[in-house]
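User: Predict the structure for this protein chain, please.
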Amino acid sequence: MAGTGTTSIRSYTFFRDATIAAPGTYVANGPFAFVDGDLTPFLSASVMLINDGATDVWFSFDGVTDAFRVRPGEPITHDFRRARQVWFRGTAATPFRFAAW
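Assistant: Here is the predicted structure, written as C-alpha cells:
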C-alpha cells in the first residue's frame, strides 16, 4: 500500500495516456476503472483531461451522459468529482491524457 510518505493517508492516482480506440461511441472506449499503481480501486476527488488531438474528445462517468467536451489543445479539470470509472468518445486515434485522483 502506497502512502504519501509523511502520513498514513493513502495517495490514489489513475493516469491514462491514450487515443480514442473507435469513433463516436462510449461502448468501444471504456469503462476504465480508477485503480492506483497496485490495482486498488478508488473513488476520485478530482479529474483532468488534456486533449492533445485535432478534434473534440468527450468523456462520461456513466457511459451514456456526456460529462464534458474538451476541444483540441484544451485541458479541463473538475474538482470535487466523485467517480469510480470513465468512458471516452471522439474521432478514432485522437490522443489525450486523463488523470483522476
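Residues 61 and 86 are 5 Å apart (CA to CA).
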